[in-house]
Structure formats: structure tokens, C-alpha cells
Design goal:
The protein contains 15 helices and 13 strands. Helix 2 crosses helix 4, helix 8 runs parallel beside helix 9 and helix 8 crosses helix 13. It has 423 residues and is α/β, with parallel strands linked by helices.
Amino acid sequence: MKRKLIILFNEYPYRAGEYSFVRTELEVLAKQFEICIISLSTSLAEQKMTTDKRIAVYHCIRKFGIKEKLSAAAKYLFGRYGCSETIRILKSGENIFGRLYDSIVFFGEADQLRKYVKKNRLISGNELIYSYWFNANCLALLMDKKRYPDIRVVSRIHGYDLYNERNPHGRQPFREYMDREIDRLFFVADAGLEYYMRCWGKSEKLGDKYMVAPIGTTCEDFQKNRMFRNQEKVFHLVSCSGVIPLKRVELIVEGLARIDNIEIRWIHLGAGDCYDEVKECARIMLSAKRNISYEMPGFVPLEEIKEIYAKQHVDCFITTSSTEGCPVSIQEAMSYGIPIIATAVGEIPSMIEGNGILLPENPSPEEVEEAVRSMHDFPREKILRMRERSREKWETRYNALENADQFLLFLDCKRKNSGSNDD
């Protein structure tokens, strides 16, 4: 009989959410476990994504109105879980009310999931719990480890759930408690692990409790011979990301606007809160330039993105993001042997080694312009080496099928008693 694996997602399968990242991993896990997914999506619509028939799906819709906030605040302030957390916030002396509010909301979200799990009798006591994010979903199941001492809880950790600066008040709630209780924590990149170890990690548990496990991408339609085609007259530049402040897509627009003597076709794949604003910026700065054509089609399904990479000659992938973990968008481009221009944030410096150009963390439009010009002007032999290097790095580091097989082995963890009764 297969062991039960409960996976916690923010969105999938009620929204696409994590699907493009986990689909290969789910296929591998479904062969070894009886899988139950709990989606915390706020969507009230029917399930958007189809799932394997072997996978049971539950949908926990949390509410957080005034009633729920007051209930969470009371349980937090007068319960054992909030005591140590409040003391740490007070000792920090910074953003006390904001951080206290964050922790109460975080606790309230976890508490509602705990009630849902209990109501639906999803845990009997020997399950393996896998939280895709190190967030309130994970906290919910960690708080149940005293009730069910034989369950194991593991989690991935990415960006918004890792870096203190990604929280408006500069602090990740309940991090010390979660660090102590988690059985194994998987980082998508070395840079994330290094940050975590500086802030919360225990060095003696490195390599056992804390592990780097890249997710990777798939590339079924790669044709090596397509990498060696002669460069076309028009330089084809592709970017792919959400159009949100952190991604700074407008920097690409501003950099391209400075170029007059290179024929460029730029396409940005993705939508987001700033889509209309950036599209208008592109219209103002690029539409009158005879040497540049551009497209911003909005959201594009993963399958269509891969088709672009497979069938069109893409000269370069570019991102000007201000923060990243180990961006899947770059991994996907690398799998097709595409050179990269990217900012030196997160794991990107270790991804760009002989296969592209590394921009500063906060590049100017002039530096973006210069990078595009350089990539265009490189001799053919250098571009071919970059293409080969992109593909090689993907094969050795970001192949999703191989990474999923390795992740399956990592899941087999045994809890070690921390000996602490704090919280």
C-alpha cells in the first residue's frame, strides 16, 4: 500500500498557479504515493486545471473579514503560539505593529487550514506533508506535529516566502518556530540557502535538514541543429515574466529606445498589474522607431512559449528583474540553447556562466542598451559557444525529470527530536 502524501498549494489546480513548475514532479510522485492535494486558492470558480485521476483534490477557501481577524487575534495573543512570536517582534524594535499584524494574519490563515484538515479527516497520523511554499499553509501542519508525532512535514522555499525584504514590514512571521519544526526544507537555488543560513539556519543540519533541490523545466522538442543556424537580419529578443514592479519590464523598453542602428524584434510574454502602463510606455518610446518592432500579447500558455523557442530563431532572452530565486523563465530559455541577458540577483549569477551577459543588480537603460548591442555584435563563434553552454547548464542542473527523481529520494526523511518545547 502506498504512503499518503498531502501536498499544499496556493493556487493549483483551481488556478494554473504552480502547475508549470510542478507538473513533472507530480507525475513522478504519483507513481510512488497516494496523493492528496489541498489547494488554498481564493478562486470560487470550479477547478481550472485537470489532475491525474489518482490524485484527490480538496479546496480550502479561507475567509479573513473582521470576525476572522478578531478570532485570530484572540487565539494568537492568548495562546501559546503567539507568545514567543510577540516577544521576538517586541525585541526587534522595528515596525512592531505592522509585524504583529502580519503574524496574526499568518497565524489566522494557518489556523483556518488546521480546522479544515481536521474537519475533513485528512490526517490519520502517518502522512508525509509537502508544502510547496514555506508559508502559513506549512505552519498549519507544523502546529499539528504534537498531535500527530509520526507525520513528517517538508517544504520548498522560494522567494516571497524566504526573504525578509519581500515582506512589507521586513520580517517573515513564525520563522524560528517553523525552522525548528520542519523536517526538511528544500531550496530552489544555492543563493536562497545561503541567505536562509545567515538568518535562521543551523549549520550542523546543512545537507540533511536544509537541501538544494532545483525544480527545473522540461524540453521535449529541442533540436540541436537549430542552435547553429545563421543569425537572421532582425535580432529577435524575448522576455517572459509577469508585468509587475519587481520585474522592471519598462527597463527593457527604455534600453531598446536608445538603439537606432540595429533591427530588433522584441516580444514580451506575460501580463500583470503594470501591463497597461508598460504597454503604453512601449507605445510612446518604441512605436515610432523604424528599426524596432515589438509585441506584448499578455499571458501566453507555457506550450506556446515553448513553441516560440523551438520553431523561431531567438537570438537572446532578457530579464531586468530586481529580485529572483532561480527563475524558471531563464531555465526554459536555456533548455533551447538561448543566450541570456539578466540582472545579478538571486541565483542568476551562477546561471550565467559563459552563456550570456550579467547586468548589475540595478542596471540603467544605458547598461541594458549596451548589453543588447554586445549580444548582437558578438562573432558567430562566440554566440554558438554561448548557445551550447546554455543547453549544457540546463542538462546538468535544470532538467525537471532528473530533478524530480532526485527530489523523490530526498523526501525520505526521518524526524529528529529538537528537544525543545518552546511555543
